[in-house]
Specification:
89% of the residues lie in helices and 0% in strands. By secondary structure, it is mainly alpha-helical. It has one domain. It is flat, with a radius of gyration of 22 Å.
Length: 70
């Protein structure tokens, strides 16, 4: 258990240091970087919603097919 906790804390600390270094060494200004991150996050959200809607429609069609009398 101690090894797992040590590993998880190492991963968290490494991620934090890596993210901090990436922000400090990024070629874009802070405002530009935040804008790019927000745009990318919005695109990902839109893609997830689209995929979820398509999957829901697919599953509803399958459910309807399974419920219909043969």
């Amino acid at each position: 258990m101690k090894r797992l906790l040590s590993f998880i804390s190492g991963v968290a600390l490494g991620s934090l240091v890596g993210a901090t270094m990436a922000l400090l060494l990024a070629p874009a200004s802070g405002n530009d970087l935040r804008s790019q991150l927000q745009d990318r996050a919005q695109r990902v959200r839109d893609e997830i919603q689209s995929a979820a809607s398509a999957r829901r429609a697919e599953l509803e069609g399958e459910l309807k097919r399974l419920r219909s009398p043969r």
